[in-house]
Amino acid sequence: xxxxxxxxxxxxxxxxxRKILNAFLIAGIAVICLTFMFGxxxxxxELTLIRGMGLGIINLVSAFITIILSINLIPTEIERRTIYTxxxxxxxxxxxxxxxxxxxxxxxxxxxxxxxxxxxxxxxIKQIGAExxxxxxxxxxGSLMTFMQMILLCSxxxxxxxxxxxxxxxxxxxxxxxxxxLSSFTNDLAKTAASPIIKTFFTAxxxxxxxxxxxxxxxxxxxxxxxxxxxxxxxxxxxxYALVYAAFLLIIAVIAFDxxxx
Amino acid sequence: xxxxxxxxxxxxQYQVPFKREAVNAVDNLSIAVEEGExxxxxxxxxxxxxxxIKILLxxxxxxxxxxxxxxxxxxxxxxxxxxxxLPESPxxxxxxxxxxxxxxxxxxxxxGREDARKKADELVSLVGLGGRSDSNKRIxxxxxxxxxRVGIAQSLINNPxxxxxxxxxxxxxxxxxxxxxxxxxELKSQGKTMFLSSHQLxxxxxxxxxxxIIHKGKLRVQGFVDELLAxxxxxxxxxNGSNRFAERIKTIxxxxxxxxxxxxxxxxxxxxxxxQILDIVREENARVVSVIPKRRTLEDLFVEIVGERISxxxxxxxxxxxxxxxxxxxxxxxxxxxxxxxxxxxxTVQVRPTANKYKDMAKK
Lengths: 262, 364
Fold this sequence. Notes:
heterodimer, A: mainly alpha, 78% helix, B: Rossmann fold, 4-stranded antiparallel beta sheet, 16 strands, 33% helix
């Protein structure tokens, strides 16, 4: 585990220097700050808009960062041949993979955190002088759900990277992310479709693809009158779902990587 | 002494994409390297050297055969505590300093951060990067030679018993090459086992106890360097040779070529042979340009083994020079291969000197 942590630390320090990821982060923070520009709405509408946009931007930018980071994580190591010097040391392949995964998660976590802090500050400033201001820290629950979603996305992409080239991986991961975000839609189609073939198809899609849509926590945050039955249960369920699914994908990746020639 | 590295009938096959063909990158290779031995592993580009090293490190897996390092199967984690690897043109994270790189690799051996830093201090100084100007430099500011030094530093972290060096002096200037060669000699004096893959035949000659040459994945020659290079030779340059002279020369040096009256013959320094050639020169009114005693080099041997590559393209056939090979004097093990012309004792092997065709042409 110590070895994996050393690799993770190195991965974070390298990833945080990648210009493209920094560009996404800066763009994300900039867009969050730009939400202040909405002046033509009523204060209540404006706040709703800022919350909705902010969480959406964090989600979108995090998804870009996650996909770009994780599709290249292993292939770059092989292409640059850094993996040779690492795996010729007493490092087990699963430790290497776990280290890279932890490093990617750490990098994504830092990015989500930085955007969330900017978002919370923006909302707190906007709420100054407002009647009955909501606790802006509540918004961090939305960020937590985004982070859990990204853990799942990163695991999926990293698992694919053992089998596919980065370009193919990019399209596969993005497609599955989009389909997974429409999980409630595919579920409805599976239930309501008349044709058994279509029903089976959408049921399979719904069951096989990770349900990224489950992590959408923005609605209750944006519209406080919408309440989930049990927030704690909702959060816990999603955290467990993300971690179990991610662990499953990592196990597949480890098994495949163990026999892969580098 | 026991074998530090043992390869038994190793074969690595790659499937040709979109074809039902397979290519043997390594073909039934068997090698044993004793502890404390510096073993040169030579071959042309694509001969299968790096593939073999990667199998020994457990980075790729053999199609057939077995490979052991320090008695453990290739890739064994415990054995990796005692081995080191320097890849050809190593890459390190560009934003790091040499010290940070070595610290990172030291931590992969389970060292604590402080111990790893101390080790990095020691090794970075050892490879000559400990100076004030170099210590603050990031890898992206390093020259190829400096990167290679970082590679060597990371290969010495665990005070390894066995080192795998893949082209350690490739692409380096003369000074950097000398420094790395000196370091290898130092490791030799410390009794390390080294598996050295290199194109720099001069380095191999100076550093290695034993050497092998592989070609197209097959082992062609293996033996002690001194034995491989045994046998003094003489190079005789001749001018004004007539057709009759050329024919007479061919009777004692089959395959000798005299074109336009000019030729260079390289023969073993056998009693009477040179005198016999010189007699023919006198009798046929040809002119001796030079008679130069030559030591056989690893390059000569390398050219003999892998030279077929260029000659197969039909070049320089006219310039073929006969080199009489004193097979009985060479105690080295010459291995059977369908691609190598096997000879009887004291027989003559026609060898085409094609390592540097331009040099050969200039000679003629």
